[in-house]
């Protein structure tokens, strides 16, 4: 990554370009979509200036191959409080259905997990909302109640969110007669390091 006149070897994580979310939570992007806007977050020394140009290159596994251009953008600030959340959806299936109550299986596989995730709301693919009432047995079956009758062929979903952080592998590169790469974390003070975000426009 080229930030102004500095070069860094980084492993950014990507999120949706919602710069001003109400609760500062932004959805994690698993991969870059060509032609779309994304925000990349990395660990690097604090860089001042909201108009600092950013260039992203991809380094090939073979050192003999040249680096390829990925995208360009601008720095949007050094904000360690930015929350990037990865969403995971667990799914289960109704085993028995009686009016608004159903026995669910294959969502969990032990009683302890059911007790731990009991406060979390359940949703179905057809729009019904419910909650866990009690576990049944020791193999992950549990009883749940919904706001309406559910179909036997419906799918029960439980959504979980996990905060993600950039990979701690940033190195600063200095171009001279030969390429020199050294870790600046060995000599930098922790207070001078920050999670920096840059808005990127990915090139096709």
From TrEMBL:
SMART domains referenced in this protein's UniProt entry, alphabetically: DUF663
Protein name in UniProt: Ribosome biogenesis protein BMS1/TSR1 C-terminal domain-containing protein
InterPro entries: Bms1/Tsr1, BMS1_TSR1_C
Listed GO MF terms: GTP binding; GTPase activity; U3 snoRNA binding
GO biological process: endonucleolytic cleavage of tricistronic rRNA transcript (SSU-rRNA, 5.8S rRNA, LSU-rRNA); maturation of SSU-rRNA from tricistronic rRNA transcript (SSU-rRNA, 5.8S rRNA, LSU-rRNA)
Gene Ontology CC terms: preribosome, small subunit precursor
Location of the Ribosome biogenesis protein BMS1/TSR1 C-terminal domain: 2-164
Stored Pfam families: RIBIOP_C
């Amino acid at each position: 990554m080229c930030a102004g006149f500095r070069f860094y070897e980084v492993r950014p994580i990507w999120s949706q370009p919602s710069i001003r979310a109400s609760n500062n939570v932004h959805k994690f992007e698993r991969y870059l979509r060509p032609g779309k806007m994304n925000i990349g977050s990395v660990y690097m020394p604090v860089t001042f200036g909201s108009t600092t140009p950013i260039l992203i290159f991809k380094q090939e596994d073979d050192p003999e191959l040249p680096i390829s251009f990925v995208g360009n953008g601008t720095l949007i600030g050094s904000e360690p409080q930015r929350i990037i959340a990865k969403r995971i959806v667990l799914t289960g299936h109704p085993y028995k259905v009686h009016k608004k109550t159903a026995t669910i299986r294959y969502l969990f596989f032990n009683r302890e997990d059911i007790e731990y995730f009991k406060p979390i709301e359940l949703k179905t693919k057809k729009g019904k909302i419910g909650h866990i009432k009690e576990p049944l047995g020791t193999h992950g079956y549990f009883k749940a109640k919904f706001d309406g009758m559910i179909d036997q062929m419906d799918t029960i979903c439980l959504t979980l969110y996990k905060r993600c952080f950039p990979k701690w592998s940033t190195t600063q590169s200095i171009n001279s007669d030969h390429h020199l790469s050294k870790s600046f974390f060995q000599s930098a003070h922790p207070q001078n390091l920050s999670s920096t975000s840059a808005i990127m426009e990915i090139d096709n």
